[in-house]
TrEMBL record:
One MF annotation (Gene Ontology) recorded for this entry: peptide chain release factor N(5)-glutamine methyltransferase activity
UniProt entry keywords in alphabetical sequence: Methyltransferase, S-adenosyl-L-methionine, Transferase
Organism for this UniProt entry: Candidatus Buchananbacteria bacterium RIFCSPLOWO2_01_FULL_39_33
Top-level taxon of the source organism: Bacteria
CDD domains, per the entry: AdoMet_MTases
Listed Pfam families: MTS, PrmC_N
InterPro entries found in the cross-reference section: HemK-like, N5-glutamine_MTase, PrmC_N, RF_methyltr_PrmC, SAM-dependent_MTases_sf, Small_mtfrase_dom
Boundaries of every Release factor glutamine methyltransferase N-terminal domain copy: 8-75
Protein name: peptide chain release factor N(5)-glutamine methyltransferase
Length: 289
């Protein structure tokens, strides 16, 4: 089988199950199997692949036809310009989560400008999964101390590997949200599970792919707010409160989300930011003063 034949074979199969980016995906899979850049693959359509490569490719196409995410098939995902190892124990980092990283970096930069001082800032990434947020932050804020928690030991293992791959030093802690944290925290970043439980049974193409990701990374009760409710209670009990809390949220129950914030942080300033699709995606909760 040549590269062009393999592409046609894969694209036909994937189009049949309504995968719109079928051609692009076949290129990504071939590039991973041949361990070559996509450019090289595209430049050599008549190159023959070996029987072993063909077998592997066909097995990946078969898995993709059942909507297993490409990132799991190739074992990696790009996020914030960095490469992360991913497996079934961690959520695949999403492009919209880059907004959260941007927001934290902007906050640190602005605070430094205003206060014009060099104090070491402590940032915590809660529910770190693959470590994507923590590692992206450390890469861009090398002076900050970054702590990352998760209540999945399997996820923390992946995050630790990713920290090493990206040459960043992060303190990983196995913890229910921030319950094990002893340090003073300046900034809280969290992308906790936020899908409402009703989405578990949805049969759309996105939900079909979700079944491959760890459930505790996705769903959080009837309104998708259970973990944030618990987190806000834990923050309220901290002696020294953080300057800012930045959370990624689901857009479905936005009024309930706002109410939850107001109940827990009545005097704090709440700003909601939309993602590139125009959906409410980020909560930025700032301490008064
Ligand atoms: C939506 S995933 C986000 C993963 C990663 N931060 C990202 O943005 O790609 C949520 C993560 O929170 C973790 N998690 C869920 N409940 C938690 C809890 N109570 N304490 C700590 N981590 C929790 C899950 O194991 C999962 O890794």
């Amino acid at each position: 089988m040549t590269i062009i034949e393999a592409e046609k074979f894969g694209a036909d199969k994937l189009k049949k199950v309504d995968i719109t980016s079928a051609i692009l995906e076949t290129e990504v899979l071939l590039s991973a199997i041949l361990n070559q850049s996509k450019e090289l693959i595209l430049a050599n359509p008549n190159l023959k692949i070996t029987k072993a490569q063909e077998k592997k490719y066909k097995s990946l196409i078969k898995r993709r036809e059942k909507f297993e995410p490409v990132a799991y098939l190739i074992g990696k995902k790009e996020f914030y310009g960095l490469t992360f190892k991913v497996n079934k124990n961690v959520l695949i980092p999403r492009p919209e989560t880059e907004l959260l990283v941007d927001e934290v970096i902007n906050f640190v930069t602005e605070t430094k400008k205003q206060k014009n001082k060099k104090t070491k800032i402590n940032i915590i990434d809660i529910g770190t999964g693959s470590g994507a947020i923590a590692i992206a932050l450390k890469t861009h804020l090398p002076q900050a101390k970054i702590i990352a928690t998760d209540n999945s030991k399997a996820a923390l293992k992946v995050a630790q590997i990713n920290a090493e791959l990206n040459k960043t030093e992060i303190q990983f802690i196995y913890s229910d949200l921030i319950s094990k944290i002893k340090d003073k925290i300046d900034i809280i970043a969290a992308n906790l599970p936020y899908l409402p439980s009703e989405e578990k049974d949805s049969k759309n193409i996105f939900s079909l792919a979700l079944k491959y990701e760890p459930k505790p990374a996705l769903f959080a009760g009837q309104y998708g707010l259970d973990e944030y409710e618990k987190l806000f209670r834990q923050i309220k009990n901290l002696k020294i409160k953080p300057q800012v809390i930045v959370c990624e949220i689901g857009p479905t129950y936005i009024n309930k989300t706002k109410k939850l914030v107001k109940e827990n942080f009545p005097n704090w300033r709440l700003k909601i930011k939309k993602d590139l699709c125009g959906k409410n995606r980020l909560l930025i909760i700032k301490k008064p003063g």
